Amino acid sequence: MQAPDYVYQARCVRELSRRCEVSVIGKSLCGREIFAVNIGDSPAPAFIAAGFHGMEYLTVSAALHFASECAENPPCRGVTIVPCVNPDGVEIALHGEGAACRYRRFVRQTGSACRWQANARGVDINHNFNADWQNVKRRERAAGIIKPAPTRFGGFFPESEPETRALTRLCRRQAFSRVLALHSQGREIYWDFGGCTPPGCLPLAEKMAAAGGYRVASPEPMATGGGFKDWFIKEFRRCGFTVEMGLGKNPLPLSDFEKEYPRVREIFLVFSCR
Question: pTM of the full predicted structure?
Fold first, then answer.
């Protein structure tokens, strides 16, 4: 299994562009393009995004593979796929500080490139969305996270990062019926966000969990709020899910793809074809 770095992502997207619509929804801090693959024809497609965290790059492989399958055999409803929200973080986790462009000194000083989750300047994209923001920051401060870091620093204000804004712009422009954020690891599905959650979200989460052999769960307190699915539920009052792919310790080895992708694929199919 080839590492899903930026060169590999761009090659896959070029191949996909021959069969379906591909767009660039934004650029990372280091100027890497954030791609979206649009499959099928629906006024309210489902939306799948992966690669929020640098060392969760197995999720990028899964999203690209599913996009390729859908391009050949579209799901019963339209789906939009962003294979990698955080291309700089993935590149740093795979190739080290040299991939961090003008932020390489900062990455080197942390000494954590191989376990990098944040974007190039140390903001955790999945803590940077405007959802229960004040409590997110309170929990960060209580944990001693007060400045840019390899993980869990949510930024100085919501949507401070270009990667975050690329997703929120896309969602405000396109009427997605529901969203799924792919992370790793735990084989769990999270589905709610406070009092904002529509009633149909839990039944769909249970169907997806049954299809993939996952369990429906709640995230740990530190991972509550600030995330993409939290923001989507709050903003649009539509269903949003976080799917935690695989088991073990991040970064999951690329060799896990063969055993984990079939499970995720079944989850994707239930999600996309509801």
Answer: 0.97
Angle among Cα 184, 206, 227 to the nearest 5 degrees reads 40
Q: Is 136 left (phi over 0), alpha (psi -120 to 50) or beta?
A: alpha
Question: What confidence score (pLDDT) does residue 245 get?
Answer: 98
Compute the distance between CA of residue 242 and CA of residue 244 in angstroms, rounded to an integer.
6
Two structure tokens written together for 223:
């991972």
User: Which residues touch 111 (CB under 8 Å, ≥6 apart)?
Assistant: none
Q: With beta carbons less than 8 A apart as the criterion, state whether 117 and 54 touch.
A: yes
Q: What is the pLDDT of residues 179-231, one digit of tens each?
A: 999 999 999 999 999 889 999 999 999 999 999 999 999 887 766 789 999 99
Query: What is each CA distance from 32 to 29, 93, 121, 179, 253, in whole angstroms?
Result: 7, 15, 14, 23, 24
